[in-house]
Amino acid sequence: MGKNIETFEQLTVMLKFIADTSPTYKKIAIYINDNYLQIVFMTTNELAEQVGVSQGSISRFFMALGYRGYNDFLQNLQNIVSKELTAPKRLQFTEKHGIKDKYMHSIFDNELANMEKLGSIMETDEYKKIVSMLASSKPLILLSARMSSTIVPYVQYILNKMRGMVYKYTPSSPQWDTIELADPENVNILAVMMPRYPRVLVEKCQRLKEKKFHIYGVTDSEFSPLMECSDAAVCVPLTVSSIFDIYSTPMIFFNILLRDAAKEIPGISKRMEDIEKIELENKVYY
């Protein structure tokens, strides 16, 4: 019942339904409905203490909603609030509620849960399509904007060692406005779009899709606008229970993705050896 809730309206309906099943569940449901932003920063123990119920009641509540437990619900809640939970609001909540080191273990738990999902992502057909696309000889455009684009230089740096014709475009790039001039059949696009979804990136992907460009996406949720623009896309979770989104899981994902793509690129060993020789000749490293 509770899996993959997309909106606050759906969350409210779900809470109202479960609240009618027991007085304890009603107490928990009311607190969640009134304090969902604060809950993003809470551990199971802290939520139980705030509501005034046992940890066991908290666990049973979320299992009754169809989740594996509180952390599973928290992942879904983070996806819902990611658009509303701006950096100033996160800072406000952390200061108001004294959220400092005592919440570090909650962040670690969320990240570990995120990383455990990578194995299942790697088994999907969408992931395999992206791997094959990266390993192809077609020119590749890496497309992103705002905070999502901070991952892209890392990806471009490694890809450039693996293969040629890899380009990084952001809204500040002169080439951003002329991508549509390329032949859609002679270029691939890898778009990286994490919350909060930049309008400029969403609209660019929509226009490129209309012009029949082949877009492959890495985003965080099935409800991301990038999903409908992509030939293939994967959802990589990230943690929003901090002042700023935590990108450690997406970074690990890209490292694995590039490793798998490297296995499919013919002649990569020679290219890597040639690059190493050039770097030694130019004394690139201290």
UniProtKB/TrEMBL annotation:
Species whose genome carries this gene: Pectinatus cerevisiiphilus
Molecular functions per Gene Ontology: carbohydrate derivative binding; DNA binding; DNA-binding transcription factor activity
Q: Which InterPro entries match?
A: Homeodomain-like_sf (IPR009057), HTH_RpiR (IPR000281), RpiR-like (IPR047640), SIS_dom (IPR001347), SIS_dom_sf (IPR046348), WH-like_DNA-bd_sf (IPR036388)
Classify the source by domain of life. Bacteria
Give the protein name, as stated in the record.
RpiR family transcriptional regulator
Please state the span of the N-terminal signal peptide per the UniProt entry.
none
Question: Domain named HTH rpiR-type: which ranges?
Answer: 8-84
User: Where is coiled-coil annotated?
Assistant: none
Q: Which GO terms describe its biological process?
A: carbohydrate derivative metabolic process
